[in-house]
Amino acid sequence: MTIAAQDVRFAYGQRTVLGNVSLGVTGPGLMALCGPNGAGKSTLLHVLAGRLRPQAGSVTLDGSPIGDLKPAERARRVAVVPQTVGQAFDLTVEDLVTLGRLHRLSVRDRLLLRSMSPEDEAAVSAALQAVDIESLRQRRLSQLSGGEQARAMIATALAQQADHLLLDEPTAHLDPAFRRDILEILARLAVSGRTVLIVLHDLMLAGLYADKVALLAGGRLEATGPVEDVLTEGNLTSVFRTPLRVERHPASGRPLVLPG
Q: What CATH number did the domain enclosing 193 receive?
């Protein structure tokens, strides 16, 4: 289970955002994609997901060009959680999560508004249970807290039953308790067999929960590998251009990133 970018270059007009980036996301496991603001993290995630086509280089999914896959096939294999929850129609949680099953319906079934199969209903219920919001299934998105909305978006992706889960800053604007809850959910999903890539600003959470870390700066990959090898004082100070200190968690021995 691998999504791989090879010598990827991406630009918006004349502004180059990614320059010759090569990165393999192999699972199962949880990889954190970290770096300063404007490093190109979200762009790289969407390139890896096949949502953006690079101007140069290639992206493959288990060895096949991801751009050659039809949208429905790609959705069966890669699920993406965006930064924000669209609330234009103020759906219920259940209706939102049900959208994760649309790629499994034929065009005819969609046009005829066929109801979900027992398999679809089971997938939705399992996704809600996985993120512990089954009790909220009839609540509307506008009635949810930020942390609950983030869980609902993850449940929508889980309903796709894809092996690869890519998340773009799902912990943004959440308080510390909700951020930790989200990372614990993602860590459990990785242990259960999924490949999880998360764009993450919180280096403390990356140290505590990630199996691997990729550091991006100025559109270039500066370091990638096991969390203990990448989250070093030298790497972090160079990438973030500010003194950072790395200590060990007293219980787990994992790296704790602190201000220098």
A: 3.40.50.300
